């Protein structure tokens, strides 16, 4: 499965078939988790593997009675070793990196499961004390999530994902542009066009030089063409920067927070003047 297909078609599965998941697939999923990026490459994470059907069902009582536990074939608790992160990165390590490391690990697991045709769900709502008691998790570690696995026995309802350009702010938080998607699209097309022109020009230079100075000088000519190409790309970068700088002066989207704030301020100013 192509990586983008995998990302775009993955869904949370909460109802599973009464069919066991093969061990080699489970191992592959856990292995994929360990390849996630992590701060300082500390790899300060652990898996608690639960395959016992009765115990998985008993987890139902410590997870706000989520039905998914009734049919899940496997439960994997992802645990962060927060003390290690704290030792290296202080509070930021304990409160941020340890959690982010596990989140990256979990996402890898979910994608790997989907690629292998196995359904999965990230469970974050659970009674931490009960889970700590049940699995003897020490205070230097923290359970981050329970990952349920099994073969899907449901087709999830369609999900609406926000358009990416609705999330893009430019320059400062809250700064939006009505036509951001058009700007981004146009710019990428412009880049593609310029790159093709540069490539063609560099090839032409090399071919012309080959004819003029012979094959032995080909290397020198190639590197000089490359250097020229680099200069031109730098120019292109400056152009893009200027383009964005120009945008900064543009109008923010009508519903943007900065504009609302500005409107509020001018309204209050007017009020003050009247008094
Ligand atoms: C931090 C976190 C906690 C979550 N906790 C739960 C949970 O307790 N129960 C559950 O059914 N789904 C849980 N989910 C899954 C989300 O509900 C799900 O990813 C979201 O609705 C989007 O749907 P999708 O995964 O099918 O694309 C959690 C997801 C995350 C990232």
Task: Walk me through what this model shows.
It is a single chain. The chain has 275 residues and is α+β, with helices and mostly antiparallel strands. It folds into 2 domains: 3-150, NADH Oxidase (3-Layer(aba) Sandwich), CATH 3.40.109.10; 165-256, no CATH class. Helices cover 56% and strands 10% of the residues. It is built from 9 helices and 4 strands; from the N terminus they run H-H-E-H-H-E-H-E-H-E-H-H-H. The protein has helices spanning 3-9, 23-34, 53-59, 68-71, 82-115, 128-135, 180-213, 218-248, 257-274, and strands at 45-50, 74-80, 119-123, 142-150. The chain has a 4-stranded antiparallel β-sheet with strand order 1-2-4-3, with helices on both faces. Helix 2 (23-34) crosses helix 5 and helix 7 packs antiparallel against helix 8 (218-248). Flavin mononucleotide binds at residues 11-12, 14, 66, 68, 121-125, 156, 159.
Low-confidence stretches: none
CATH architecture descriptor text of the largest domain: 3-Layer(aba) Sandwich
Instruction: Output the radius of gyration.
Output: 27 Å
Q: Report the top-level CATH class of the largest domain.
A: Alpha Beta
Could you describe the largest sheet, including whether it forms a barrel? 4 strands, antiparallel
End-to-end CA span: 68 Å
Q: How are the strands of the largest sheet arranged?
A: 1-2-4-3
What is the ordering of alpha helices and beta strands?
HHEHHEHEHEHHH
Give the count of structural domains: 2
Indicate the structural class: alpha+beta
Range of helix content:
55-70%
Count of alpha/pi helices:
9
CATH homologous superfamily grouping of the largest domain: NADH Oxidase
Task: Tell me the fraction of residues in β-strands, as a range.
Answer: 5-15%
State the CATH topology of the largest domain.
NADH Oxidase
Shape: extended
Kindly report the average pLDDT value: 86
- How many strands? 4
Which ligands does the model contain, each kind named once? flavin mononucleotide
